[in-house]
Design goal:
It is built from 13 helices and 25 strands. The chain has 519 residues and is α+β, with helices and mostly antiparallel strands.
Length: 519
Amino acid sequence: MRMKKIIVIAVIIIALIAAISGYWILKTAKEVPKQELVIGISGRHVRLGPPPWGTGPWAGTPLIYESLFERTLDGEIKPLLATSWEISPDGKVYTFHLRRGVKFHDGTPFNASAVKFSFDYCMKREPSVGGAKTIEVVDDYTVKIILSRPNPLFFSQLNFYILSPTSVDENGEVVNPIGTGPFMHKEYVKDEYYVLVRNPEYWQEEVKLQKVTFKVIPDAHTRTLALEAGEVDMIGVDAASHIPAEDIPTLKDNPDIVLSEKIGWRSNVIQFNTEKAPFNDLIVRRAVCHAINKKAINELLGERGSVTDGPLLNNTEWFNPKIVDYYPYDPERAKNMLASAGWVDSDGDGILDKNGKPFKVTFVTAPVAPEWLKIAEVIQSQLRNVGIDVEIQQLEPGAQFAAIRKGQFDIAVKVYGTVGFPPIDFSPYLSASPDPWPPGRIIKNSTLDELIYAYQTSTNKTEMVKICHEIQEVIIKNAPILFHYIDYRIIAMNSKVKNFEPGTDWSSLRPLWKAYIEE
């Protein structure tokens, strides 16, 4: 009997120990935060394959795919899938030495054949960008990219993403996104979500986040509310998912939310159609520049951007200080200039006319940034004050691009590439623009063309800076566009997201593989 009691007591003690252990195990498990991140996006730029050069990836692209090299926040070019490179004396051949031991997500090896495959994939979609002509495989871990001309902008223009040859179907289309990046494609439901999971065999240090879900929330203000409610952990990660200017002060005041540093990265411009009246007249274009009050635009931007006078940030030697305030706001001067060009209000209706035709123009915009429509309305009001009747036409981005390319506009709002990392690409300003963002020709100007070609083929930095100044001056004086503000890339995130500093331009989420969630 005594032995039975001892056994019963022992069983009870063991059960209690197991229960207590189980409790603490569960408690500890609950206290360990899930390494899962939810990001709110607009859903506009999502794509399976890497984009052609110049078209800009969606935010998840640099998490799945990687390039031969990358750019740091201070503009330095650093090795990534290439460990080193050499440039031939004539500037036409770039020889890349590739990283060994790297595998794609499906286990196939990263090598020179995969680099050539990816190069050819991009070339089919955007031929000869930056003077690239062909690629040669030297051996399993060496490739040569051959250019048709020297190109000092090579590292800005040809940073293409490497994908596995097993990614594509018989038609050459990506059906299964496979790269070498820190995250792997898991699931995509159009207009709902895109799920990535960590790459357990990533060639750099261990990826801490287990899962990243991109949740489609089309409305910008709704994305802000979702962040505040804890439904998503991060917003503002790509060009199509901007945080509205009016939401930023509220987010800044929220102790549970952290905002990234403001970094200028895109130049926003008002583009005139210089191919037809009334903006084929230089006097008219200059008059309109004087009629637009940039300070009023700045009030709309808040902390989302700042007004600018040119295509570069003014804290760099590449910026020409002579263009600062070249067109000060002066509506009376604008009216006088328009009168000298033959535009007068002959019938007293408040709208200028010339040869019986009223000064009525179409302003084409798109919902690319939350502020664009509001800015268009401000400019509409300002131009009405000098006698110009502006009709705003808001199109979807694709339709807007098509309208601009076909010349079916009078004024349009557009964006042009990275502003913070010179030397910048002036190709869109050539008379026969090869620019992949379909802007249509901005202006036909032989002087500007000669300067741009000289700039693009120079290998001397001092000479390039000098030519860059001259290019800016010619653009400003001919006024085919009006530079009006520079975008700040701002990402808002839950304060529990640690060790994440956004990357440059389109690759803002690239450093996410180092981040983790902390309770």
